[in-house]
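Entry 14. Two folds queued back to back today. First construct below, sequence then structure tokens.
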Amino acid sequence: MLFSLLLLHIAFAVISNILLVDSFITTAFLPRRAHFIDKVHLSPPASFFNSERRFSTQLIVTHTASLLTETDIDAKRQEKEADDDAVNVVLVTGFESFNRDLYEKAGALLPPECKINLKVFADSDIRSSSDPSQNEFSRALTKADIFIGSLLFDYDDVVAVASLLPHVHGPRLVFECATELMSFNRVGKFNMEHTGDGPQGPPPAVKAILSKFSSGKEEDKISGYLKMLKFGPDLLKFIPGEKASDLRTWLESYRFWNQGGMNNVKAMLQIITQHWLLENQKGEKQTLAALESLPVPPLEVTPDIGLLHPLLTAREGTTRFATNPKSCKTHLRGQPLLVSIVCLSHVVLFGEQHNNIDLEWRLSSECAAQAEREGFTLAPKDAPRIAILLYRKHVITNQRYIIDLIRMFEEQGLLPVPVFINGVEAHTIVRDWLTSDHEIHGVAKGTIVRDSTYKANEAVAVDGIVSTIGFPLVGGPAGSMEAGRNVDIASHLLQSMDVPYIVASPLLLQSIPMWKSNGVLGLQSVVLYSLPELDGAIDTVVLGGLVGDKIALVPERVRKLCSRLKGWIGIRKTPHSQRKISIMIYGFPPNVGAVALLDVPNSLDHLLKRLHKEGYNVGDFATDPDATGQSLVAALSILCQDSVIAAGVDRMQKAVEDRMQRARDGDATVPETLARPGGGLGGAQVVGKEMNFDDLEKMLGKYMMKKVRRAWPESERGPGINSKGEMVASGLQLGNVWITVQPLLGVEGDPMRLLFERDLTPHPQYCACYEWMHLPEEKGGHGVQAVVHLGMHGTVEWLPGQPLGNDRQSWSDELLGGIPNVYVYAANNPSESILAKRRGYGTLVSYNVPPYGRAGLYLELANLKDLVNEYRTAEASSSSRKELRDSIFASCEKAGFTSDVPLSSFDDSKANATIQSVSDEDFDLWVSNVATYLVELEERLFSSGLHTLGSKPTEKELGSYLNAYFKDKLSEDEIKDVIASVQTKPVTRLTHDAWWHSITSWLQEFPKNFMADVAPSTDITNITMKDDLKKEATAIVILLSKNTEELDSVINALNGGYVLPAPGGDLLRDGTSVLPTGRNIHALDPYRMPSALAWARGIRAAEEIIKQHQSSNNGAFPETVAVTLWGLDTIKTRGESIAIVLALVGARPVKEGTGRTVNFELIPLNELGRPRIDVLASLSGIFRDSFANVVDLLDDMFERAAASDESPDMNYIKKHALELEAGGTERPAARLFSNPPGDYGSMVNEVVGNGDWDRSESLGEIWTGRNSYSYGRKEGGGGTRSGTSRPEVLNKLLATTERVVQEIDSVEYGLTDIQEYYANTGALKKAAENRKKADESGQKKKVALSVIEAFGGGGATGGGTDVQVKDVEDVLRLEYRSKFLNPKWRDAMLQQGSGGAYEVSQRFTAMVGWAATAEVDNFVFDQAAERYALDEEVAKKLQKSNPEAFKNVVRRLLEANGRGMWETDDDTLEKLRNLYSDADDLIEQVASSFG
């Protein structure tokens, strides 16, 4: 594998220079500071360069009897350590600690002429001690004559090694490491130091040579480099001079190292030791002569790409290689271990024409007989065939896990096609050597065109691909240098194959115990999850990890991988009409089907009809004109009633039919939709199961059932239990489709209980529902083959278990079993979708956000605008201005507008101004501010209604998207013209690559044209920009019209196919990059945050925050600012909140050569020009788990800041740390706080939802109790990165916090839209206020809350580094006026039925939450009561759609008055009490009907 192109660029540039024999070019490519010394040329025997040897098939024999024992090695080591003439060699294995023994044995086997004292270290040894004098690695390296390092990438390791490498006396061989280390390569006069001048990359001559070693495709160049490395020494042997000789030595060393294995490593050590000794003439003349004549062992060549199988291992322990079909056939009987790739078609049956090319050994009777003799279980001949991509280096170093993995695949009934590669050629295997039934049929129909490199007669048809490599498919480890750069190529190849692509591997950077304790961490998570997900990888399974220095599998995890593969393949091979699937919708009763931004009833309707069209059996639903998704959701709501559940499954059908009859009789308490013929259910029947604890134990097994019994004793069984104490699973059956409601996560009154008690399990009925659902029918289950979770978001991915890297004890892993999980998820939430994808095995299918609407002005605000316009156009001396002045002020007071724009808004010194005291001039200024604010309100965006899965936007909706995106950059007429031009030219359905390139070709030039520094007044510039904007608008219209692909992707996923990947994000911010929807969305590489734009915006935001604070605090700097770090806004803004933290502290990101952020460097105070501000970083659970690398870097930054040699007066971090340290507090620099490990959320929203709180101060203390765990490098004991409870540090930080900062990342989820903002940020604010000292009046100082609306920060909507920071009170007013109190928004929600009513209800609860933790103006409650509860027509609609939601609306208004949040008159309160009583009676009436 190859991690750095820098090495190759420079090396081959030098080769080119020598070949061209041009002194000028040579000088340009060789370092200026190279020192020239006399040297004896290394002259290996001619046979070493024998080209025939390289291509010959040779027997590589490993004589195990000749290997030294550990005792022999220790004896030889001690002998050489005592020999002063021995060469001191330090070898660092990096990520290959499992090869430590091999390297030590290779060193011990060197001939006596090469006396070396070899010390082998793993990367963990580099940081084994913070004191260099106590670190064995540091001491060894300072005395080293030769250094060899490989696979070193951790930044701290790189820095430590780089600081010591100058001490090395002789050659430094650095292979496949971070670019910062590559420059330390040195052999004699050859080195790779940077000079800062000269050409970059290979010159044309080298490129011409390289092109001969690859297909000529950009994506194949890296593997071409590797091929050429093999020939480098052969080319250089003909070139005289020391430069060529030294470079040849380096290339020879690398060639042996790359080939790997005991003998090759031994030869490499001999080559470099010979070079060092001869170059320095160390030793007597006779000894040197013997050394010079010492032959270099032949290179043992292993194919770069090949196949292997355990049954092909020779009894005598030898390894053979075959390089052509004939030799393959000949040697199969001789039991070779590795078979060259050209034998692929002989190992597994397949040819382009389905021909049997010779007998296939794997499917032969001979193979079966051998398997029987050796007790080896073989998969059936017709078993699904799975390509397994393996690391070549692991194969040639005989890592046991590979053979075990293949063996277990066979035992599980899967026929493996194990292909080993260097790591960079994975895409060439998929492209050239693999095919699938889908691809074959596509080629036959002409819908798929294969690449010219495809091996038509040798490719193998497979049913799935498993990569144990990780990293991107194209380029492997080298592809990670620019994450996602070849995603289009990878997705095109995988889409053509259309089979599951799964990454599964043992952990190479973590031990199994560490994984079991903490999940997958750091760089390992990027390799295994983040980067493969860019290519559309699914169902990642951790197969094991390190045990000491060895790689070990966990057999149960391999079985899990196999079960998931069989699940995907099984549903594909089942005819559509026989496939059994479940559609699961979310809903905490009575809000069944209420999910974010999706119209679930209509989406369910669309999905069922599409399934019917595809040949699925959905009963009569699709052909029944009266059938509707609304009716299905209404019936499912009935099944969720406690009284219905208590009566049992047998009475459920009658309960539904009784409700249908009542609807036909005109009962207002029953949804109208059930009055349709057949209830509108399309013939759906109730199907369910009642299970006792013994039944559940048979499904779960004793181990997991023991946990359930312990957590849920007889007295507390949880919800979903009938009157007999049995667990009830129920749903509606339509043909082979079972529709059900996801079980409650917790218990009534505590719906999210499981998220906060780590030792709990799902309640018994939750377990029973999932287990029975996927249990095969022959074993008493329902036999579902796949589940569709419809809408964001459910709960299975939040169940207790590993935060990342499921194990046997993770409940989501257990309950989902092996069935595919097709998860329909909002495109704008790439944060929580990570959990669905990684913990819940979700193959995500994104759905679009609803159209945007502009708030406009309504009622009194519209009247106010007219008055203001009339006032501003009237003559100054007009008598009407006096009347208008009074009318404007009266209108403002009526609308509560004086809170938004106080009379003193133009001058803070006039805070007590009244309408009578304000001068005409000042009133004009105030009116101007009112007018500006009215424009802001009028133009403010909101999400209008809900989206229906697979629905193509209407012309009006397209206009709303474009209007929101372009603002005033395109006129209404121009937008209409764009839409019309697209609609009159139907979009041809092209292949993925074709349509994508047709749309994006112009986008490549768009940023330059749009952002060019050209005088904007020129007509040419305006025309060019306008054309570009119209082109972008056209692209957006085309991509939005592909919303229909949402259903396409659901169907393809249910076919066991591949779903195209795409980044999750926001249309307003990210533009076309997040379109079309219907994609398997992913997040970003956490090692590349913050992005350049995020960093620039973060700096600007920090400046504005400080300015905002100083303006209200007499110029004083804040000592501590609390910043919330959430996963969602971090992903969508590319790390703006991280950048804000850095900028406040006075630090900046440091990136290494591949673009990864590796350090946060403190900016010197003289450059910063102000004090370092202390920061309390409040981490969401998702941020904590998804950005562990950022957490570590931040923790390190705070530690360095606290320990810096700076005055506490200019470094508030140090000031507070010293104060804590003086009190005996441990880790006084801890600044990153979150929930306990594995837990999520503050619980404040649960408490507010239940009304179970007394004073608002208690909400702050709940937050504090839930967020007292500190995270970072120095937490959790020994670097396991678990959290440590540090309440004393948190309390100190809260006491000094003067301001809280919160980013809002989207229009759809504002402060008032979801509970999490007040429950976390508002409660944090309250916790800080609780710790302030009271003044003489008993009042505590308020803590300010700064809000940054980060949506629309990029794309055509502009934004750039222009950042507005507002106080929370101002943002709340803006949001309430533009959405919640806006009849336009209200009416859009009312049209969505039960789901819309639920959204309204949730905002009333959030309003109470904000009133408790911040301030909500009285006018908000006044108008909320007027718009929703006291408007008779609106109240009827809410009550009919969702009685519980309406009851909550009224309840929250009464609660607000009771808690002193809202002042209103007695008449209003009496009306509300009557409404609440009526609503309560109605709900009781509904419930009693099921008794």
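Second construct, same run, same settings:
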Amino acid sequence: SHSLSLSSVGIMAALLRSAQLLVASASRSVVSATGYESRNGIGRLRWRPAPSLRTWGCKSTINQIRLLVVAPQEVGSAKEEISSPIRTKQAQQFDWALNKLDSSVKRTGRITKTLLQKVFHDICRTGYPSSNQALLLLRSCGSLLPELQLSDRTEFAHRIWDKLQELGAVYDVSHYNALIKVYLQNEHTFSPTDFLTKMEAAKVQPNRVTYQRLIAAYCNAGDIEGASKILGFMKRKDLPITETVFSSLVTGHSRAGDLKNAENILSVMKDAGIEPGAETYIALLNAYAEKGDMDKIKKTLENVEKTEDHLTDRDLMQVVWSLAKAGYPQHVQDVLDGLTYERGYIPDAMNLCLNLKTQGFDDIAFQILKSFPLPPDDQNGDSPQHGNFFLRHCVNMDTPSSTLKQFCSELKASNLHASPLQFTLHCALDAKKTDLALDLMKMMKEEGLPVRAHYFWPLLATYQKEKDAKGAIAILKAMHQLGVEPDMETYTNYVLTVVDDTKAAHAVLQEHNCPVNSNELYASEVRIESINGRLDNVISLLSSPSMPAVDLQSFKGSLILGFKRSGDVNQMAKITELLYKDGRYCQTSPGPIVAVGYFLYNLIDSMSDSEVQAKEERLRQYFHQLKEMNIVITANIYRGIRKLLDTYHVPELIKDVRVLVDGKELSSFSDLHKATRTNADDLEKELEELRAKNEPIGDILRQLIMALCAEENMQKALEVKARYEADMDVGCYAVLIKLCCRHDNAEEALNLKQEVTRKDSSVTLDASKYLGLVKVLGKHGKLEDAINILKEMKEKDVFLKDAAGTSFFHILNTAAVRGEVETVNRLHEAIMIFGFAKPSSNLCSPLVTVHLEKDNVLAALEATLDCYKKYKCIPRLHDVLCKLIEREDTDHLQKAMDFVTQQQGEMMMLYELFFAFLQTKKYKEARKIIETPGLRARPGKLLWFAEKCIAANQIETLENLVELTQKLFECDRDEMYFCLLKLCKENNWQKAEAVWTNMQEENVIPRERTLKLLADIFKQNGQEVPFDVPETWYNEAADGASNSSSTFPVLENNLQKHIMILSKKRKAKEAYDTFLQAEKKGLKFNYSTYSNLLKVLLAEGYLEEALKLKNIAKTHIKGFTLNDAASSLLIITQVRRDYLKDALLSLKTMLAEDKVPTKLAVTRLVQALAEKGDIESINEVEDMMKNLSESLQMSRMLFINNRVLAHIRNNDIETAIECIEPLLISGKQNSSTPISSMAYVFRKVIEENQEAALEKLSAMAERLANQFAVYRPVTDIFLTYMDTGRVDDAKFLLQRCSAIAEQRENLVSYVTKSSQKPGKAQKITALLDVLPDFQEKETAYCYLMKCFAFDKDLASARALYDKMKAEGWSIDELSLKRYAVLLKDAGEPVPFPEPPESFKYYAEKLKREKGLSSDSD
């Protein structure tokens, strides 16, 4: 039937395609000088997905496009020529409207009335509608609006026609043709003769398309005579008679009651040399459908199958539509049974449903909805939600609630929708249909579904906005009838605000006998009165005997807001006293002291620094009144408030808060912070003394065990445990178990666990101890013991945090990397059975990894598929597919793809295959996949693969991803290019320039971040940026400041902004000069401005200026002090200026003010004191930093080494040696006080050419090595010789002390550090030359390959690779990866399979395997 065309997508695609040509054509005259727009328009035309020619007629469309293009030239005299700027503006607006409607049609096959109205209003608002825009709007008023009645669509078209004509749009033949098409699709009755008369009056000549459509209009009415007249006219004009005309004649004869002649039209066509096509057969099928002749429909379909033509699902849906309209619903199912559910079925079927529902064929529409194929189970666990579009349309069409209930019940029973009633309710609320919404809630209640208070909020919001108290009360009564109690948010936001006064609201509720929830209502009143700052009313409410018990948490936020808005300290204090002393408001644990304390903390926390400073006096009075009311807070809360006040720079208030803390608690709190830790040696002595006195030793024993565990001294801890086993408690065993697990000692860890169980089988360890046991037992082959631990966790119901899933993954993955199939399978099965973690792709991935590690791809595939069957997840599918493709195992690849298609859908399968082909560099196959018709972008999947390429530095693969997705529908091209530019960031500006060119050719509009990244790449490589870089206000203002540093705005806030900008740009001198100018004008700034300027002045070495600024700031801001960072910078600057006494004084001042200096500041000061030989001051600094050294992670070697250097500066080498030698010996004998590296001392001595000191230090080091087996000093000297190029001295030292070669840990550490920066390969090579029998040569080779990769030294890397193979070393994957990248960069083939994962992956893997500290590359 021509009355309703279901080929919406095809028609719209024709519209959009012709429209694009119009844009290109119109733009040529504007930008013909460059030709860019013209080329761009054709480019879009080339790749935009186009419908089949059969859908809209190839020849007619080309003719139509030609006529559309030339028509404006024919009527050009009717209007004045529009100016070029206006034409350009029209083209831009048209492109915007085109994209809007284009996106809607491609996604859904339809356009909503709301969207079309929006585009229409936007075009009208500009005042310059173009002919193209008018054509676009008119063509959208037909079958693309299935949710509107046919008459409404036509009325909309007429409104558009009249309005745009009024605004000056010029109509040509294409517009009239579009209007006829709309009439046909909307079954609008009109006179073709009158229509031609109107065209003649407008001086518009009809064309072939006009005549064809007028013939269709006559035929739809069964007027063969009228159609024949136009047909004869076409013949006289020698216009071709196409299949479209014949199909219209089939319809015309049928509707005239002459079905025989309708059938004979096919013979006439063949005689005329035109083969009947799908269009003709559809017209004949519709003719049979209108007669209800199902036998002839089936016979015709059989005949079509014998021809070369093919009827699509969309074609058959037109037959369904004809059957429904003709009143033959009993035959609809027969046609539906013939559908093949091809691609695009769902949107077409949805539009048919909407059309049927709109025209009142509810049952048939619902029948089609139920015929939708059931989707595969959602991999994310989401419930089915199909039918939403239908339910929403039913609500909009005012379908009775009883009918809606029936639809919802059947949808749920058919498993098409998990919660249809709830969604329908959502639609009713959205459409503001109150009666329907209440009926639906009653149905939900009857079915046992929850009805919650917030469901009523949209209904109440309408009455609240209109101040309709009666309407709001009606809703409250309905809530009561449904058994739903209004909560506090309901009363606060929607009920009490209906009237202006809460007391009046009470009266209205009582007057209408509205039941209320008194607790929630009173709390809501407190909220509203607090928000409005009426604290007197709050006091009345809280002190009223009728006020029910309401927890402070329910109105705390509103009360804080009220306190900030009120200036009455007495009222604030009175309310706080009521909260503290009246038990109704703090009933829950931990009581009023904590609750009110947190209220005070939140009050201060909610205020800005300027607010606190402005209200400082008021807050002081408030705290004093609280003290007089005997209100107390805890010491912990006081500490939090103190930190806030410190941050706000109002330290004077701290003492006012301090008075609220209980005296005893404050005292113990202070003592606790002054306490210092006792070391293990002292604890052991104390333990022995207590044992000798036969006194209890439990507490001291626990402290000793914990101290030894903190020092990682496992052997000593186990010795102590064996000696005092009878006194060991559970806590001691727990920390020992954890220590043994950390040290990979499975035997001892298991023994300790068994001892605990023997002592008390009911003891439950925490989760981390159990997981540590499982990990270490599994690693050492004690699988049964590991599973027994898991069983015990289940039996004792051990609490596991959410992060436990990650721990289980690492346990399983470690076993998988080792290739232990049974361990992985049994542990994973136990974890699942005991319910310790939910199954996920990540947690299941070791089940696949273990087979991939053993290169058993088929087993890995089976494991992947089995995971889906058991757990509904498909782990490591991408890696399995890549392996299958590499092996060209097409049978198993097909098996995997069939499974993915069945379980996750065809689109997911296509993406997995696309990524696998890309990964394996089969780009031709990848192109075929991504060009599959109907495939659309999945942003998350594309970004995942792009990030994977970035992590693995696979620039070629990423380039192909970006290129191949160019035509992918809805692909975010800027995102793709941004990912590609990330890989170009490091010294590859030529590649970045090529990317920029490609973006321009593709007409990609880059986001700000993309332009900034591109500009950074060009700037870093000394290239000119070929575009304007988008700047933030910060950069723009800074540039402005630097360009005209002598001209500044007068206003204070602008000056302040300038100073902040220049400070952040580290332009210290300019910022300071700006500040001085402001100071002359008497301007004052906030704390942040002074602080930031101070820091940048100190960082740049402007000490005098910084001190002057500090003094000025003190006069402007009461109590101004430097913060920790600025104070530390001050010390560093003073040291740099050699003002060591001032620096020492600054450090003392900092510590006296409870500030913490940075580690760098202390280090610089101590080193400078050593330069001066000031041993006394070094000792003083060490004493001052005693309590902070641990928190700052400051090694005691800082003071030891610099004390030694100070003695050497004073030419007192003997004392220096006497100072250090006993410490080195005692450190060897007592592992609790080890002495680490002296390399710093040796380096300084060598750099300063103090040979005498070096000789004596070397003699000391050799003596310690030979007599006391203390090898660290001599090894440090050896490595310092190597590092400073004194290789001969290193060789001589090695000859005298051969044990140096056995210091594996120190030597490997030197190799590791040497590999951290480029250009250091020679150091490792020299070390291997001196130590030819180095025990860790394999490790050294690994780091040497890293150095060659850093230096891009392919020749050396190749030589190293050959050498390792010749010496029989097993080359690790990380080294192979680095060597492979060097070869590829040089364009050479890789002689081995390149490891596929990222550098980070292999670095982590190597670290796990060898236990070495490794960087992550």
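Quick look at the second one. The mean pLDDT is 80. The CA atoms of residues 333 and 367 lie 8 Å apart.
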